[in-house]
Amino acid sequence: MIETRLLIQFIAVAEELHFNRAAQRLYMAQPPLSQAIRRLEQELGVLLFERTNRCVSLTPAGVNFLKSAREVLRVLDEGVEKTRRVSQGIEGHLTLTFISIVSYAPLLRALRAFRTAFPAVSFTMLEATTQEQTEALEQGRADLGFMRAPGRSAPELRFDTIWREPVMLALPAAHPLAHSETLHLSAFQHDNFVSAPRHLGQGFHDQLIQLCAAAGFRPHITQQARQLQTLVALVASGFGVALLPASLAHEAREDVIFRPLSVDAPAELQHVELLMGWNAHSTSLIRDKLIEEIRRAMALSID
């Protein structure tokens, strides 16, 4: 492995074509410089300079090596500068995972503001279920995730609740109860339900089952889908009704009606949270900067 110091010394001699001037430029004596160049030539196994009593000139191999040496130092300098920028949290890469976040305008504004403030930070954005996100964070494949409650212990992960919203009932516009202002959940005990599979979001799935249990029945789930927007489409198509976060009601559709629920259940069951999660065992300054930006933007706005 050739030392960086030897490359710097070689470049000085190559540019000055005079050992004494190169030594003065490097603030060193001329004999040690000559010895360093001979040692470099021995390591390379080639002659880099033609030396006579009257002049010093580069050999063809020396001309080629000069280009390589300059490129090596340029790449090294760029790497050092990039490392400093990463350590300062102004450059780097983040992998974000998320359930659908299109309905959460404050979160989208926070991401946009962060990208504007730190344009040298690149992103990989991956849509994933809560279960998939939890695994990605635990395994170090993601830096930050936006999800529902995992429903299982994840001691190495940390979570912030960044949004809290009511659970609403989505039903087809043609449903007999579609135009009732407030719906008693027990009135739907004989309806078909559509839901996300439990293994993809255990916490949210179990919460909805508990809501129905508080209303005195267990829902008859006839169709399942990974994405909440797909569940809305299934409701629109008449496959059943669904318990969904209120934010989905902002996406106006004529064929699906969202209505508030009336059910004798604890408040925590009647609301759903959007969590921001990360692995506390990993360190990332840019991730932490993004977390703070999102905390400010969302202002922990829990209804």
Helix and strand arrangement:
Elements: H1 4-16, H2 19-25, H3 30-44, E1 49-51, E2 56-58, H4 60-87, E3 92-98, H5 105-117, E4 121-127, H6 130-138, E5 144-147, E6 157-172, E7 183-184, E8 192-195, H7 202-214, E9 220-224, H8 228-236, E10 242-245, E11 256-262, E12 271-279, H9 285-298
Parallel strand pairs: 3-4, 3-5, 7-11, 8-9
Antiparallel strand pairs: 1-2, 5-12, 6-10, 6-11, 6-12
Helix pairs in contact: 1-2, 1-3, 1-4, 5-9
Number of domains: 3
Number of strands: 12
Query: What is the name of the CATH class of the largest domain?
Result: Alpha Beta
- What structural class do the secondary elements suggest? alpha/beta
The CATH topology assignment of the largest domain is D-Maltodextrin-Binding Protein, domain 2
Helicity range: 25-40%
Radius of gyration: 32 Å
Q: Secondary-structure element order, as H and E?
A: HHHEEHEHEHEEEEHEHEEEH
What's the architecture of the largest domain, going by CATH?
3-Layer(aba) Sandwich
Largest sheet: 8 strands, mixed
Low-confidence regions: none
The named CATH superfamily of the largest domain: Periplasmic binding protein-like II
Beta-strand residue percentage: 15-25%
| Tally of contiguous helical segments | 9
Morphology call: rod-shaped
Overall pLDDT: 88
End-to-end span in angstroms?
Answer: 61 Å
